[in-house]
Amino acid sequence: MTLPYPRSDERRRMVDLQIAARGISDPRVLAALRDVPRHIFVPSPYDRDAYADTPLPIGNGQTISQPYIVALMTELIRPTSMDIVLEIGAGSGYQAAILSTLVRKVITIERIEKVAAHAHANLVAVRADNVEIILGDGTLGYPPSAPYNGIIITAATPEIPDPLKAQLAEGGRLVAPVGGRSLQDLVVIERHGDRFTEEHHGGVRFVPLIGKYGWE
Ligand code: SAM
Fold first, then answer.
1. Model's pTM, two decimal places?
2. Hey, which residues are catalytic here?
3. Phi and psi at residue 19, to the nearest 5°
4. Per-domain boundaries in the chain
């Protein structure tokens, strides 16, 4: 990624007031949020508000998540520079671009072709060249690159899809909004052999995960 991008003052303010102030403390995650130009991932005219504390429309009825939630989900998987991470729901590509600065390789799956094409263009624009976009049903995961040290599901799911649990590495962490179609709980599971520990991190609202192991 070529640095720095314009609007760095807005990004610094966003990180100080919306992200660090609300308890995100991993310095690598804060640096990623300061570096990656969110305005590149938000279509006009909403790009004006790219550094506001809110999700924004990206077309096709989909959204780019609120910056704080992106930071929280990123911190919760505890990314390291050797990791391979799977994201379900590429959307704008922003979450994948944040991850790309923190881990070795990112695979991101998107089910809507047009959305995937935009995500690809955005990721090329910021030179996030360790991200691979796969078109398809992310509830099935992506076995060719498994196991994953971290998995982030960025759409609301009634439960964590079994194929994704199976593709999590030993000690790997998966974060997902789990619950109903309109309100979910942010859940983290961590794999220890065949056992999974579970943490709960509060209420969130995401668009639905549509697929074989998600919503119809
Ligand atoms: N992570 C995105 C970003 O950084 O902009 C935001 C994701 S948006 C909240 C949710 C995305 O999940 C949408 O683009 C939607 O099309 C996608 N989606 C829903 N169900 C899916 C599935 N089964 N597989 C892959 N993508 C899915």
1. 0.97
2. 65
3. -115, -60
4. 8-204
